[in-house]
């Protein structure tokens, strides 16, 4: 044995991560058809690198190793990260979205790493306390362009995360490729260009702040209107599919409700009305009722859940089967329209059947009815908004004193009060739920933040 090991050690070992001596099995990166050098270009050109990884694989790695992605592990998805061992966080949700999106995108011909990058990125801009925190930061930044999680995501990818800098000192953020930035842009428009809703008002969703327009215009060059890329559409659908079933799973397992309650008229009416108010305002209630009936008729529907190992397995099977149901319907409908060619960038659109859209919305409506709109949670929501509002107000008054070094540096270089306010918003948005509470306890209330350590 010792002689064999000695002979092995004497042999030259292949270098996997360098251009020289790479063994045959290391291979070359495979470029997915349908993408050009234009799609693989970076805002700040970079020197050529070894070819064992594609440009899009590098994009995914940059997001995966970003500090913003790590912070999502301590940010609220539906319930607070420390509320339950089972409940999903923004990070676990993002990983699940990436898994769904990667497989669906690959089956349609998209580069799986571009879709994966978009899915991992899609919630990076979320502040503490989820959408509730988003409302609070939007309220205190209305005079400087507001706050929107998707616009904050672009700001992180192209400015706040640290990877590359231009010669003049301007940050290029992670310096992702044009295709990946476009894929991560769910709402490719400014706030003032947001599409009109049925009631004539503009959507509050937008994807870029005014001072991030240079990179936005770079990766949207040559495109007109507000059309999203094929990869962004796959990411968007994967997000909808993921949280439609997983939020229901979390709610059932955490004893917030039982799916069997939908057999009772007042519960069913509550879910239908919540679905209409939140997701499908123009849809006839009977269509939502029919969608619920189709879901209840599936063999995997778990009407009653008792927490046993068998019921946990049944719940997992239900979520898996429903994800497959929704994705298969979209795959079949998209291929029926566009054929079997690779569908990439701006040469096609994801097609989701109307019945499938209603079923997804109905699942989201179940979670919204019993978790997000729960009367017991309203005082907590108000307190969360107060915490973030008071933090912003204090940090504005104290300037760079309490900001993290990188934000303090940005604050010192800011051109005016609006720019300084945006940096304060960047700082607060970067906090996790627990650090937001800690900062508020210590800085605003002036009390010791008591955390239990083992």
Automatic annotation (TrEMBL):
<dbReference type="GO" id="GO:0006203">
    <property type="term" value="P:dGTP catabolic process"/>
</dbReference>
<protein>
    <submittedName>
        <fullName>dGTPase</fullName>
        <ecNumber>3.1.5.1</ecNumber>
    </submittedName>
</protein>
<dbReference type="GO" id="GO:0008832">
    <property type="term" value="F:dGTPase activity"/>
</dbReference>
<keyword id="KW-0378">Hydrolase</keyword>
<feature type="compositionally biased region" description="Basic and acidic residues">
    <location>
        <begin position="1"/>
        <end position="11"/>
    </location>
</feature>
<dbReference type="InterPro" id="IPR006674">
    <property type="entry name" value="HD_domain"/>
</dbReference>
<dbReference type="InterPro" id="IPR006261">
    <property type="entry name" value="dGTPase"/>
</dbReference>
<dbReference type="InterPro" id="IPR003607">
    <property type="entry name" value="HD/PDEase_dom"/>
</dbReference>
<dbReference type="Pfam" id="PF13286">
    <property type="entry name" value="HD_assoc"/>
</dbReference>
<dbReference type="InterPro" id="IPR050135">
    <property type="entry name" value="dGTPase-like"/>
</dbReference>
<feature type="domain" description="HD">
    <location>
        <begin position="90"/>
        <end position="244"/>
    </location>
</feature>
<feature type="region of interest" description="Disordered">
    <location>
        <begin position="1"/>
        <end position="23"/>
    </location>
</feature>
<dbReference type="InterPro" id="IPR026875">
    <property type="entry name" value="PHydrolase_assoc_dom"/>
</dbReference>
<dbReference type="Pfam" id="PF01966">
    <property type="entry name" value="HD"/>
</dbReference>
């Amino acid at each position: 044995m010792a002689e064999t090991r000695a002979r092995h050690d004497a042999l030259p070992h292949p270098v996997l991560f360098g251009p020289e001596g790479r063994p045959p099995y290391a291979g070359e990166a495979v470029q997915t058809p349908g993408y050009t050098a234009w799609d693989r270009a970076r805002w700040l050109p970079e020197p050529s690198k070894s070819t064992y990884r594609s440009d899009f694989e590098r994009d995914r790695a940059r997001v995966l190793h970003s500090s913003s992605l790590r912070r999502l592990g301590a940010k609220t998805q539906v319930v607070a990260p420390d509320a339950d061992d089972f409940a999903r966080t923004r990070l676990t949700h993002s990983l699940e979205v990436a898994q769904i999106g990667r497989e669906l995108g690959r089956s349609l011909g998209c580069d799986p790493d571009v879709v994966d990058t978009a899915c991992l990125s899609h919630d990076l801009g979320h502040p503490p306390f989820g959408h509730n925190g988003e409302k609070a930061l939007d309220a205190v930044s209305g005079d400087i362009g507001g706050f929107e999680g998707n616009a904050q995501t672009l700001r992180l990818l192209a400015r706040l995360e640290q990877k590359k800098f231009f010669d003049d000192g301007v940050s290029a953020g992670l310096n992702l490729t044009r295709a990946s930035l476009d894929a991560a842009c769910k709402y490719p428009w400014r706030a003032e260009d947001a599409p009109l809703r049925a009631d004539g008002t503009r959507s509050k969703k937008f994807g870029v702040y005014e001072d991030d327009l240079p990179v936005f215009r770079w990766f949207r060059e040559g495109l007109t209107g507000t059309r999203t890329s094929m990869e962004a559409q796959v990411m968007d659908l994967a997000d909808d599919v993921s949280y439609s079933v997983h939020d229901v799973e979390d709610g059932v397992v955490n004893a917030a409700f039982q799916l069997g309650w939908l057999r009772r008229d007042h519960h069913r009416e509550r879910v239908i009305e919540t679905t209409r108010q939140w997701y499908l305002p123009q849809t006839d209630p009977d269509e939502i009722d029919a969608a619920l009936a189709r879901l209840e008729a599936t063999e995997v529907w778990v009407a009653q859940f008792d927490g046993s190992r068998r019921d946990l397995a049944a719940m997992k099977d239900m979520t898996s089967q429903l994800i497959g149901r929704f994705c298969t319907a979209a795959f079949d409908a998209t291929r029926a329209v566009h054929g079997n060619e690779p569908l990439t960038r701006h040469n096609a659109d994801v097609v989701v059947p109307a019945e499938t859209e209603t079923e997804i919305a109905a699942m989201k409506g179940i979670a919204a009815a019993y978790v997000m709109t729960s009367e017991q949670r309203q005082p907590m929501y108000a307190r969360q908004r107060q915490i973030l509002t008071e933090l912003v107000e204090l940090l504005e008054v104290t300037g760079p004193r309490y900001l993290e070094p990188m934000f303090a540096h940005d604050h010192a270089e800011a051109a005016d009060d609006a720019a300084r306010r945006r940096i304060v918003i960047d700082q607060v948005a970067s906090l996790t739920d627990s650090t937001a509470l800690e900062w508020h306890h210590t800085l605003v209330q002036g009390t010791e933040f008591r955390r239990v350590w083992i």
